[in-house]
């Protein structure tokens, strides 16, 4: 009989080994899944995890890694603050959408004027939009003690409806002959977030790296980072330590909302190009997996986002070359989070083999 | 707009139907939470139930078998959550989210070849005598059987928690798992059973959407119903009978906005479609929740 014995300290070895093991297990299980779907497991795994980096067309896919990875990093970094403090903002998808709408609206309002001030203004609007959307569950939690998980999630559905109404109504391209969707911001020089489209560089990528450094310094060197970690590990100790729990909720929600909003704006002004009914592809939810897979640590998140971006790109390749259903990739991403949570038991508990003692 | 297009009797009758998936899913989650487990994977279990039920019903031609299949599918998926949280002591919030993401992917994969097919007919009951009462008959007594299964489940859960010994043990486990363990109850076993019941109920709720309410399979068709079910458990202060109130309130808003859309209200469709979600938020704000079960969301490990 196997029993679990609590470790006095979480294992540092397993903190690093667990995500790696989860990825390996996901590849194995994913292989079984692909085999069940009638695809060659080895070939499919190779297509998803290696071809985007090392195949003869890798020059085309590598820039994609930055494009898909940047929003994941931005959102996951923001979420990691709240998750560490036990504040569960899982409506990042909604904040991402609202940030994109607000930012795009500012850009479109100036069309066709050209000025270097337009893009910075759009960034501000995007961040503000996301922040305000995230503050709704934050304020309701502080004032009325409502559950932030449920409220932030409900607001995703509201944001999706808002997006539909904007794409069909207020922000619709007047020269678009009645088709839904806004003007193309990526082709409007003052509003485009591209630095170099061929290299996959846009301002969101830059901000993602800045956010990683900023989060790293804040969490390891700044008092606020200490308070976040303290509140998560021991709320009681945090209160004695002078942490204001209500302010912490609002700040964590604002950070995650702001970064998600920014991610939405960069996406809509670059890779997506326009506000359309379905420009969002679920980065807000995938970022939750990224945050956990990265152990809520900025560097870990950077690596995890790279891996997730890889599965997106590799998944698309597998879809077009091998006819793998898109849902299989989504399933694999969910599997990854499961395996991670499963393996995680080893960092907090030791396995003991032997006869179970009488309890 | 055309007010005469809205028929109050039909409105109330469809309210009962709109509330049923929420009732089914939330009564299961209520038991789970009363046992001290927070399973945020309701949405994932619901959509898996929706697709399982649909596949079984289409292949067997029997909606009843479909509902059984959905319950089994939901329960199997919930076992995954139970194994992780109860035996591997993973974080319940994170695991629940994982279950939802996993369920959405799984259902999309399973349902691929079933898009666009119609579900087998699930006939309404016309209860003799009661169904013939004017006004009340069509509102209350002329629905499909699952509406009554949902109501029956709520009554059964209420009686189970209030009068049965097993219900008392379940509540004890949820209130204070250390004490229940000290008294010799198997905390993990009770919780696993509760989690499976929750999964089966969520599966039924999902299948009600794909077999009765829509009745078709489309990807992501639950559209947040599982999350609304979670909200309604909080609204109900973990009490079965108040659950009905919450579910009917939600059903009322849903049906009303659909009717207003059909009647050509001057508000754009998108804003009307937001209303069920906004109503859920409003309800969470206005209704101060009662006291949650004492051990809700905490992992239990019998350490020596």
- The proportion of strand residues of chain A reads under 5%
User: Based on DSSP secondary structure assignment, what is the total number of beta strands of chain A?
Assistant: 4
The level 1 CATH classification of chain B is Mainly Alpha
Strand content of chain B: under 5%
User: How many distinct domains of chain B?
Assistant: 1
Average of pLDDT of chain B: 87
Strand order of the largest sheet of chain A: 1-4
Largest interface: A-B, 50 and 46 residues
CATH architecture of chain B: Orthogonal Bundle
CATH topology of chain B: ABC transporter involved in vitamin B12 uptake, BtuC
Following the backbone from N to C, one meets helices and strands of chain B in this order, namely HHHHHHHHHHHH
Describe the structure concisely.
The complex is a heterodimer of chains A (359) and B (304). With 359 residues, chain A is mostly helical.
What is this structure's SSE topology?
The complex is a heterodimer of chains A (359) and B (304).
Chain A lengths: L1 E5 L5 H25 L4 H9 L1 H4 L3 H27 L7 H19 L7 H27 L3 H21 L25 E3 L4 E2 H19 L1 H11 L1 H6 L4 H24 L14 H11 L4 H25 L3 H18 L1 H4 E5 L6
Antiparallel strand pairs in A: 1-4, 2-3
Chain B lengths: L7 H27 L7 H19 L2 H25 L4 H19 L25 H5 L4 H19 L1 H11 L1 H6 L4 H27 L11 H11 L4 H23 L6 H18 L18
Helix pairs in contact in B: 1-6, 1-9, 1-10, 1-11, 2-3, 2-4, 2-9, 2-10, 3-4, 3-9, 6-7, 6-11, 10-11, 10-12, 11-12
């Amino acid at each position: 009989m196997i029993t679990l014995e609590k470790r006095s300290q979480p294992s540092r070895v397993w903190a690093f080994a667990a995500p790696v093991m989860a990825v390996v297990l996901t590849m194995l299980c994913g292989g079984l899944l692909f085999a069940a779907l009638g695809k060659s497991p080895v070939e499919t795994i190779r297509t998803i995890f290696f071809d985007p980096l090392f195949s003869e067309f890798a020059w085309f896919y590598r820039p994609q890694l930055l494009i898909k990875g940047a929003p994941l990093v931005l959102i996951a970094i923001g979420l990691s603050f709240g998750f560490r403090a036990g504040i569960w903002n899982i409506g990042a998808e909604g904040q991402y959408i609202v940030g994109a709408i607000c930012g795009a609206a500012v850009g479109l309002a100036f069309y066709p004027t050209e000025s270097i001030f337009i893009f910075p203004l759009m960034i501000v609007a995007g961040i503000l939009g996301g922040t305000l959307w995230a503050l709704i569950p934050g304020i309701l939690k502080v004032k009325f003690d409502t559950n932030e998980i449920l409220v932030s999630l409900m607001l995703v559905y509201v944001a999706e409806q808002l997006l539909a109404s904007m794409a069909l109504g207020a922000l619709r391209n007047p020269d678009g002959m009645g088709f839904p969707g806004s003007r193309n911001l990526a082709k409007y020089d003052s509003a485009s977030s591209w630095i170099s489209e061929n290299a996959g560089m846009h301002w969101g990528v830059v901000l993602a790296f800045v956010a990683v450094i900023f989060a790293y310094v804040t969490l390891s060197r700044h008092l606020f980072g200490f308070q976040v970690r303290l509140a998560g590990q021991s709320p009681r100790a945090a209160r004695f330590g002078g942490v204001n729990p209500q302010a912490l909720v609002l700040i964590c929600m604002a950070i995650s909302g702001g970064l998600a909003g920014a991610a939405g704006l960069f996406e809509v002004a670059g890779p997506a190009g326009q506000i359309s009914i379905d420009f969002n592809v679920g980065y807000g939810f995938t970022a939750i997996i990224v945050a956990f897979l990265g152990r809520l640590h900025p560097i870990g998140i950077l690596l995890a986002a790279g891996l997730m971006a890889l599965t997106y790109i590799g998944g698309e390749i597998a879809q077009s070359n091998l006819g793998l259903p898109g849902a299989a990739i989504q399933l694999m991403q969910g599997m990854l989070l499961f395996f991670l949570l499963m393996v995680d038991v080893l960092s907090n508990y030791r396995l003991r083999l032997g006869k179970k003692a009488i309890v | 707009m055309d007010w005469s297009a809205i028929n109050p009797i039909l409105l109330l009758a469809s309210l009962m139907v709109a509330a049923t998936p929420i009732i089914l899913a939330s009564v299961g989650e209520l038991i789970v939470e009363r046992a001290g487990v927070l399973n945020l994977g309701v949405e994932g279990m619901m959509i898996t139930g929706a697709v399982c039920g649909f596949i079984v019903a289409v292949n067997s031609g029997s909606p009843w078998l479909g509902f059984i299949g959905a319950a089994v599918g939901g329960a199997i998926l919930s076992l995954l959550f139970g194994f992780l949280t109860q035996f591997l002591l993973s974080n319940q919030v994170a695991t629940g989210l994982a279950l939802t993401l996993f369920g959405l992917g799984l259902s999309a994969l399973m349902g691929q070849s079933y898009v666009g097919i119609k579900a087998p007919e699930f006939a309404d009951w016309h209860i003799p005598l009661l169904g013939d009462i004017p006004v009340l008959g069509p509102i209350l007594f002329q629905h499909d059987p699952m509406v009554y299964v949902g109501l029956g489940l709520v009554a059964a859960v209420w009686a189970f928690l209030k009068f049965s010994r097993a219900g008392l043990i379940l509540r004890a486990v949820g209130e204070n798992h250390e004490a229940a363990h000290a008294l010799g109850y198997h905390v993990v076993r009770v919780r696993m059973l509760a989690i499976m019941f929750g999964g089966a109920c969520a599966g039924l709720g999902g299948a009600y959407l794909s077999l009765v309410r829509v009745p078709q399979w489309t990807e992501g068709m639950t559209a947040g119903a599982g999350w609304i079910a979670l909200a309604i458990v909080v609204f109900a202060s973990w009490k079965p009978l108040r659950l009905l109130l919450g579910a009917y309130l939600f059903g009322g808003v849903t049906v009303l906005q659909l009717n207003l859309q059909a009647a050509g209200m001057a508000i754009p469709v998108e804003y009307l479609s937001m209303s069920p979600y906004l109503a859920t938020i409003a309800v969470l704000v206005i209704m101060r929740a009662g006291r949650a079960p004492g051990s809700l969301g905490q992992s239990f490990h019998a350490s020596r």
